Amino acid sequence: MFSELESGRFVDGARAAQRVPAAQGFILIRVLTATGRAARTLEAMSAVEGLTSLAKAGGCAAKYSAARLEELLAGIVPAEAHDLLVGLDPSDDAAVYRLDDQTAIVFTVDFFPPVVDDPRTFGWIAATNALNDVYAMGGRPLLALSVTAFPEELPVSVLGEILAGAADATREAGAILAGGHTIRDDEPKYGLAVVGTVHPDGVWLKSGAQVGDVVLVTKPLGTGLILQAVREGRAPDGAFEAAVEAMSELNRDAADALRSFSPNAVTDVTGFGLLGHAHETALRSGVKIVLDAGALPALAGALELAAAGVRTGGDRRNREYAGDHVTSTASPELEALAYDPQTAGGLLIALPAEKRAVLEATFAGVGLALHAVGRVEAGSGVALERS
To answer: What is the pLDDT, as a whole number, of residue 93?
Structure first.
């Protein structure tokens, strides 16, 4: 069984997640993706009751409040450097520093507590989440360093699996995991500091949305809702596997397909939820973003869980951050989906409307999802409209 899971590739090009019967205290899950990536064995160790049992909050739901971050960073004077293209004024998904007329470096760091029990999958997802910041700036990852906090009481083999998963994801991104730093902590945490490259004229900012743009997203929403439901023991069959598959997907292919279209604004949808990140884009662009609640893509089971009252702590913090800037006529479950903190979420794109059809054809041609969810209007704030 182990050799079957750890070797070979899924050659049919279909996507699937298959549970394998438990054996010797382990739960084995096979995750197969259209990328042709070798099938990965996911091992949730009953001996430590799973990594998520050691975390107060998992994934991007553990992010510090965006409202508090704004207050904190307001007192920091940004560096005055001609070649600092993106820093704190305003901040974006990563910092960008110009080396010369042809090359700038993109630099980011992101880490969080476990979002799944399996160590290798946790490492993969945490690495994917950090690498995606580089893609959100229009760049390509080059080099990564681990940022690790780990309890001494856990077997060192667990940490080895986390690092192995991160190395696999980094390698798939075309980058190198070259080292890192590890400290002792009661709560495990993992992520990456990533350096990438981008042409100075090809940097994607979240602050460039224009009136008349169409708003698109590349991944379905609902990872926070599903992971919370897993913690509460009420996730429907297949929901967890769908969330893991979404969180494990690098935004590399989506960024590559988008690159030649010169989007006006790009960010990735992570811990602040769709409405939090749309608010940042609208505010910094000086526009109003109108989202069609009925067009929001949702992971299987996410809306049903939202209707049943499932919420994360990140939902409350995101409402505190963006709520005063959002008007909503949507149903409570669709509103919860739009506020839901995402882990390793997709790209949020503002693109001239005349480019939409060609971009959709480009994405479809390489088997990528793309969802038109709204438009950019004159004004300010974000509107979530009932269809």
So the answer is: 87
Helix crossing, 332-339 with 273-285: angle to 10°? Answer: 70
Structure tokens at 309: 């009252």
Report helix, strand or coil for 40.
strand
Name, in order, each residue with C-beta under 8 angstroms of 189's C-beta and a sequence gap of 6 or more.
Answer: 111, 112, 113, 147, 148, 149, 150
Q: Tell me the domain boundaries of the chain.
A: 1-48, 52-201, 205-385
pLDDT of residue 77: 57
pLDDT at residue 73, rounded to an integer = 58
For the domain 205-385, what is the CATH code? 3.90.650.10
Locate 306 and state its tokens: 């939202």
| CATH class as words, domain 52-201 | alpha beta
Q: Is 74 a catalytic residue?
A: no
Alpha-carbon gap, residue 220 to 340, rounded angstroms: 11
Give CA–CA dist 283/137, Å, rounded.
18
What is the C-alpha separation between 330 and 376, in angstroms, rounded? 18
* CA 81/CA 87 separation, integer angstroms: 10
Q: Are 48 and 20 within 8 A, CB to CB?
A: no
- Stretches in the chain below the pLDDT threshold 50: 1-48
Of the listed 31, 60, 246, 302, which one is catalytic? Answer: 60
Query: How does DSSP assign 70-110, residue by residue?
Result: HHHHTTSPPP--TTEEESSTT--SSEEEE-SSS-EEEEEEE
Distance CA 213, CA 264 (A): 8
Residues paired with 95 in a beta bridge: 107
Distance CA 309, CA 303 (A): 10
Q: How far apart are the first and last CA of the chain?
A: 48
SS3 17: strand
Q: Cβ–Cβ contacts within 10 Å for residue 199, how many?
A: 13
In the numeric block, the tokens 């899924």 are attached to 10
| Contact status, residue 350 vs residue 376, Cβ threshold 8 Å | yes
